[in-house]
Amino acid sequence: MSAPTLVVENGVLVTMDGDRLVRGWLGIAGDRIVALAEGAAPPAPGARRVDARGGYVRPGFVSAHQHSMDALLPGSAARARAFPDWLFGVHYAEVLGHGPERAAEAARRTAAGLLRAGVTTVVGCWGVGDAGSARSRECLAATVEVARASGLRWVLAPITGDRLPAAWAADLARIAAADARVRPDGLTTSTDTALAFTAHAMEADGEGVTVWPCAELPEMASDGLLRGLASLAEHSGGWVTTHLSASPDGARGAVDRVLGANPAGRVLGAHLTHAEPAELARLARAGAGAAHCPSSTMLGGGSTSALGRVREAGLPVGLGLDNGSLNGTADMVLEMRHALMFDRVAGTTGRRVDAETVLRMATCEGAVAIGRPDLGVLRVGAAADVVVVDTSGEHWRPRTDPAAAMVFQERAGDVTDVVVGGRVLMSAREPVPAQ
Ligand SMILES: [Zn+2]
After folding, report:
1. Could you give the CA distance from residue 100 to residue 267 in angstroms, rounded to a whole number?
2. Which residues, in sequence order, are CB contacts of 177 under 8 Å at separation 6+?
3. Residue 74 confidence class, pLDDT cut points 50, 70, 90
4. How many Å lie between the centroid of ligand 1 and the Cα of residue 124?
5. Cis before residue 398, ω within 30 degrees of 0?
6. How many angstroms separate the alpha carbon of residue 195 from the centre of ligand 1?
7. Which of 120, 133, 142, 222 is at 20 to 30 A from 387, Cα to Cα?
8. In the predicted model, what is the mean pLDDT of the chain?
9. What residues does each domain of the chain span?
10. Helix (H/G/I), strand (E/B), else coil: 141
11. Residue 157 contacts by C-beta under 8 Å, 6 or more apart in sequence?
């Protein structure tokens, strides 16, 4: 064992390694957890020490599906009740006008929110429209710079599409006629441009930022684009991600087309609300993962929670905070509660999730869903993504089961210390400037 250079001690370690709860400490060397044990931490000469003061120590949360570029419009879902009015009139109206400064500011806002909430990994589907244009490349470069400087684990998935779904035509034309910022031609490019832009983005892969190919929706991608994105992912060892079966129209044939292009199943599908059980079973057999975004689904008017169906099929599920303009708080504790409540109200199977399950979705199961089983868990050999939660507040008393307490009693401001890959990014509630 290498000697720890960082020790987190005096905590209740909610390991997410089975149901193992450890009243003790953990040691970190490099970017890994190298020791974890009950009781008082031994002396570790020269090591930095973080005192959890009896609070919870948990793995960093994983946001398995998110968009950062509309993060400067929190709460805007309130003025767009219908989904197309939000997607085109709020989201695209904003991002199509981004230059690099606003893109960087949106990414900074996102990163700050994730850090405060103890979310250490984010899969960010990224786009400002006009993929491949000089503007999109400048915005991408600005975002990569912020993502890298944040110290968080950031998967950046540049959104592409080479055709518009027929079902969008009427709404898009109506909204574009009323708002000059909404340019329908900014939403898609040629197949070649989409692939060239993805390949360009993938040059940024490394140093804390991972780049995955992404089709905005399978119904916005030709088979040629889906296959091209899959081969780029295969080449880099990454996954592809897409919004999958998010609407009844879009669900038709989508799973088979995506799996046809990615037979090895290295696919993260967001939403899956309208996928059939047989399609979900095929995704599970292939080894794919799912992202469930209850807050944004509810705000978008969704009346069905697919969570039970997806879990029944055996797909690993992560929770996604989705759009900043829908879900501006970046609060994974709230997202866990919403997952539980939405499932109780709008679940479609006999299976319902409990607090333990949604906590797993925000941590270890979400990590598996994005192909990173070394995240979302505290165990020797796992990535050193560790969060300390202050449980001294009145709202924590009384508490019994740690999972129920973390889902129903934790507040976002309770996170005091955040370590990502062995680097301390927040200490005593203050962000630590990069070295
Ligand atoms: Zn999304």
Report:
1. 29
2. none
3. confident
4. 9
5. yes
6. 20
7. 142
8. 95
9. 6-59+376-431, 61-369
10. helix
11. 123, 124, 125, 126, 211, 212, 213, 214, 240, 241
Secondary-structure class of domain 61-369 per CATH? alpha beta
pLDDT at 195 over 90: yes
Ligand 1 mean position to 343 CA, how many Å? Answer: 19
Topology of the domain covering 6-59+376-431: Urease, subunit C; domain 1 (2.30.40)
Q: What separation in Å is there between the alpha carbon of 67 and the centre of ligand 1?
A: 6
Residue 84 tokens, joined: 């197309």
Contact between residue 330 and residue 119 where contact means Cβ atoms under 8 Å apart: yes
CA of 217 to the centre of ligand 1 (A): 10
Q: Which two tokens stand for residue 86?
A: 């939000």
Residues 6 or more apart whose CB falls under 8 angstroms from that of 413 comprise: 116, 429
The structure tokens listed for 179 are 């708002």
In whole angstroms, what is the distance from residue 322 CA to residue 66 CA? 4
Determine the distance separating the centroid of ligand 1 and the alpha carbon of 323, expressed in angstroms: 6
Cα gap 24→20, rounded to integer Å: 12
The answer to whether the CB of 106 falls within 8 A of the CB of 68 is yes
Query: How far, in Å, from the CA of 344 to the mean position of ligand 1?
Result: 23
pLDDT at 80: 67
> Which residues make Cβ contacts (< 8 Å) with residue 395, sequence separation at least 6?
409, 411
pLDDT digits (tens, 9 = 90+) for 143-152: 999 999 999 9
Alpha helices in 20-168 (DSSP H): 83-86, 93-95, 100-116, 134-150
Q: Where do we find the tokens 């203050």?
A: 430
CB 36 within 8 A of CB 15: yes
Residue 23 burial (C-beta neighbours within 10 Å; 0-12, 13-18, 19+): exposed
